[in-house]
Amino acid sequence: MARDFDDANLYQTWAYGESFWGAGQLSHIVVRQRGLVTGMAQLRVIRVPIIGGGMAHLRWGPLCQRRGSSLDHGSLRLMLEALRREYVERRGMHLQIFPFGVRGTEREIAFKDALNGFKSSSFGHGESYRTVLVSLTPDLSTIRRSLDQKWRNQLNRAERNELTVRECPDDSGFPEFAKLYQQMVTRKGLSVVAKTGEFQRVQRQLDADSKMPVLLCEHAGRPVAGLVTSAIGTTGVYLLGATNEEGMRLKAAYLLQWRMMEILKERGMTHYDLGGINPQTNPGVYHFKKGFGGADVEYLPPCVASAGLRSRLVETSVRRLRGALVRLRS
What we know:
The protein is an alpha+beta fold.
């Protein structure tokens, strides 16, 4: 059913939820009006033993924009009310929703209009999401001209370096990508890394139309860089990237990203989300992504609803524990 929605995304797929959270923590809700599915959502539910209740977490949802249509405010309002009734009133949980949308857009207006019974919440430690969003609606020549001049020069260099890009249609490219990723982790001395194994499991479970595009860039038959992106709904999202020392010298990342934009446009994507930026903690990656010529945006903050004091205590405890774990990993 998610394929019928333009705001579908990887985090709302059963494959992602089962691989990262486990089937026992998944909960699904569907709203129909006159037989037509107008809203749906996948949540992660964390139950608290002894005291009861728990926390229901919804990431980048609910899905309410039918394919080829604008976001219907009434359907969104009905979906949010169904979520509040099910998880807050009936199950006595603290409900937290991270909307799929950016500030200053029609989706922000729609969510503000529909949040009866909810309240806005501030981002917790490490929860805010600022990114570069590239429009893929212009033709490719226009998109290329919109690239920063230095970025475009590096792309031109990469195209002269006898590099080849190979698209892996299933999960066969993940082992080679994982090797590149580990080389990058070792070189940079990273302590917090992505779980490539879980993403490979997600890829195995996704249906053919929803599989993540996996690109490997090779030089003289050897992989030197890799890129993993989701392509569900109308927004492609950059998930994982890795480049070894040879790939850095050959500017392979520029060629990979350009080829990925071509693929996403071919698949009908209207935007490319570059997977987050932080100018303070990671200025190098920020300047690389800024060169795409996209818009610097921030996603909408969470909205929450609580059943009472008990559910608010659960939410406070979970947030403090999550913050402590993030600081410990850092």
